């Protein structure tokens, strides 16, 4: 196991240049590169999440989007890193390294899902087609999409760590992979947002808010619709179909454990004046989850 790499971010004050106020990113934040590997000796089972096909399908559908999605996040942030303050530059480097590791582990996880009998090609083809459209639009639009999706990953990461129901009775190593990913999503949740603020530092507050809000509305529509359809498609591959299945999926998302219901307040907060991902400091969840790894405490 490689030792975690920690990036210190006390190289300068937290204020960004230009018309922006100081960012609320914690001065003592560490973005730690945990180079962990999962599923190499024992692959996940077909219904790895407590034997529940609906819960398993939802997470498999999420995972199928991560490799291409996180590559897009990296490129969107890197496209705006020229001239950023040293503190933000260090955060971007750590963000990129964490996302590369996430991509690697979800590629392994997705291959295990394919080996278990699932066809993920339909999901991947749609992602490839959608991402092809990003090449011809302004780079700032891609960054606005990225901060919206990064907010989704941060919201879900918070709930994955805060609500034990999500991975109760899941296969231990697979649950550990999801918790590891969640920890690092929380740590770097402000990087893309601070990059967006710096890239738009000469914009009016209204223009900056309008673009990010419009893109969040579009992202939300597409995210929920696509994950819903992808999950139903994976369930259909198990022969699980019909109106009752849709009701069960809706209950899983809105009732128990209710990930979409539970993140709704944080989703609303995104549209408030003065929003920043670090207005809510949830690093205590990282420490709690980190302690669950057997190699977390090192001499």
Automatic annotation (TrEMBL):
One GO MF term: hydrolase activity
Pfam family, any one: Metal_hydrol
Keywords from the named record: Hydrolase
Stored PANTHER family: METAL-DEPENDENT HYDROLASE
Protein name per UniProt: Metal-dependent hydrolase
Species the sequence originates in: Novosphingobium aquiterrae
């Amino acid at each position: 196991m490689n030792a975690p790499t920690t990036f210190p971010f006390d190289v300068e004050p937290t204020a960004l240049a230009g018309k922006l106020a100081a960012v609320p990113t914690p001065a003592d934040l560490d973005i730690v590169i945990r180079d962990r590997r999962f599923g190499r000796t024992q692959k996940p089972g077909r219904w790895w999440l407590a034997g529940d096909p609906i819960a398993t399908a939802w997470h498999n559908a999420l995972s199928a989007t991560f490799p291409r999605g996180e590559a897009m996040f990296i490129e969107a942030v890197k496209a705006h890193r020229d001239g950023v303050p040293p503190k933000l530059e260090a955060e971007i480097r750590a963000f990129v390294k964490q996302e590369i590791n996430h991509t690697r582990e979800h590629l392994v996880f997705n291959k295990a899902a394919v080996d278990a009998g699932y066809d993920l090609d339909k999901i991947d083809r749609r992602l490839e087609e959608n991402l092809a459209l990003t090449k011809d639009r302004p780079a700032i639009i891609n960054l606005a999409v990225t901060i919206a999706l990064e907010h989704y990953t941060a919201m879900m990461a918070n709930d994955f760590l805060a609500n034990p129901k999500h991975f109760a009775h899941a296969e231990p190593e697979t649950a550990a992979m999801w918790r590891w990913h969640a920890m690092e999503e929380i740590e770097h949740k402000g990087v893309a947002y601070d990059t967006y603020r710096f890239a738009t530092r000469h914009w009016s507050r209204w223009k900056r808010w309008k673009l990010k809000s419009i893109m969040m509305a579009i992202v939300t529509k597409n995210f929920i619709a696509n994950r819903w359809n992808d999950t139903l498609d994976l369930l259909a591959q198990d022969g699980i179909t019909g109106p009752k299945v849709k009701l069960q999926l809706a209950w899983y998302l809105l009732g128990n454990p209710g990930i979409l219901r539970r993140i709704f307040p944080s989703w609303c907060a995104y549209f408030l004046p003065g929003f920043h991902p670090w207005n809510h400091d949830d690093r205590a969840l990282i420490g709690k989850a980190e302690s669950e790894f057997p190699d977390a405490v090192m001499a």
